[in-house]
Amino acid sequence: MQERIELSTGGRLDLFLLSKLNQHYPLKKRGFVMVIPGGGYRFTSDREAEAIALWFNSLGLNSGVLRYRTDAALDNIVQHALVEAAEALRLIRQQTQAWSLDTACIGVCGFSAGGHIALQLATKKCALAKSVLHIGEVEDFQVDFAICGYPLVYYSQTLIENQARFEEKSQSLLNQRYFGSEEPSEAVIAAANPIHYLSEETPPLFLWHTAEDEVVDVQQTLDLAMAARAYGIPIEVHIFEKGVHGLALANEVTALHAEDIEPTVAEWTTLCANWLRRRILRDK
């Protein structure tokens, strides 16, 4: 990490900028990827943070890790995390000259709950531009591409029950934390579903998931992919047969347990790099 920026809404953005290197070629403009770790909105996973940002650096892209707040006492943590992410995105776009950024190549990469945040950023730029906390131009919240690993796309009763089981908390307390209400309406829950905000303007998506995921069902990624296809959104999807939830790089670098190493799944980085070169980095 080269620099840390504290966000006014809480949380922070840890930066890994190639433009800050002593031998950086000053005329070279590079893209930027904001990495958003998962953690079930209970914490931000270290395994889905710095190692991912440095991997993007290896592709010649600047990167940063969003460490959004997950305070236990924070009501409506889902919305608050999105507000922090929106502030970070606008900050990045305001520094395009200082950081020598390619303004047409600024994207997000999220995992699990971080994938949920990334997808909302990619689909809600108009709403974010009009929000009370982030009044600004729509262009300030432009996402040029989104990369998501085993993303949470929408909330289901099973998911809420699983979170309650993991944390030994009641469903009503989890609802209060996630949605600001012990009994959120269907409209409130639906508002957190990025599928409802897809449009022809949604940027290209790269998605990957495992069929064995027991925390976030692979059906969520499949539903998102089919909905995106209906809008003609450029999308690449990879479903791997084996693998638990939360694999990150799926190799020794990010493994916490032996089951976190899946050589076949680890190929997602090669697939993603090729996708970026074809769609985002061409002619850069």
From TrEMBL:
Domain (BD-FAE-like) ranges: 32-225
Residues spanning the signal sequence: none
Gene3D superfamilies: alpha/beta hydrolase
Ranges in a coiled coil: none
Superkingdom as given in the UniProt entry: Bacteria
Alphabetic keyword roster: Hydrolase
Hydrolase in keyword set: yes
The name this protein goes by in its record: BD-FAE-like domain-containing protein
Organism of origin: Candidatus Enterococcus testudinis
